[in-house]
TrEMBL record:
Keywords: DNA-binding, Transcription, Transcription regulation. This is HTH-type transcriptional regulator YodB. One of its GO terms (molecular function) is DNA binding. The gene is yodB. InterPro entries: HTH_HxlR (IPR002577), WH-like_DNA-bd_sf (IPR036388), WH_DNA-bd_sf (IPR036390). The lineage of its organism: Bacteria, Bacillati, Bacillota, Bacilli, Lactobacillales. It comes from Latilactobacillus fuchuensis.
């Protein structure tokens, strides 16, 4: 019995070696507004801040700035500053663009399992 327990404990420890990456991924994607910001940039390409504000209307400007900074820090979003004007735009990095199949899968899952009426009631 002890050998089985040791084997299970050993296997669990091996399995949990990947957990920090998985946890990190969900700390990025699971944070409120991040998925929507990524989705907007996937769908519409490079965006000015004011366009993102209109695309994510329930998110305050302050929180949107925070989320964009966080996504920039983890290498998902690039902040592009024009040298000849005060124009600032945001675009997905290659790392961010590679989330396209993940976001497509989330759309398929939500179309199948989420009821828009539930959201309206909450």
């Amino acid at each position: 019995m002890d050998m089985i327990k040791e084997k299970v404990t050993s296997d669990c420890q091996k399995a949990f070696q990947l957990c920090p990456k998985f946890e990190k991924t969900f700390s990025i994607l699971g944070k409120k507004w991040n998925g929507l910001i990524i989705d907007v940039l996937l769908e519409n390409g490079t965006q000015r801040f004011k366009n993102l504000v209109h695309s994510v209307p329930k998110c305050s400007d302050r929180v949107l700035v925070e989320r964009l900074k966080e996504l920039e820090q983890v290498g998902v979003v690039d902040r592009i500053t024009s040298t000849d004007s005060s124009l600032i735009e945001y675009r997905l990095t290659t790392k961010g663009e590679e989330l396209a199949p993940v976001m497509a899968a989330v759309h398929l899952w939500s179309d199948k399992w989420c009821d828009a009426e539930d959201e309206l009631r909450n």
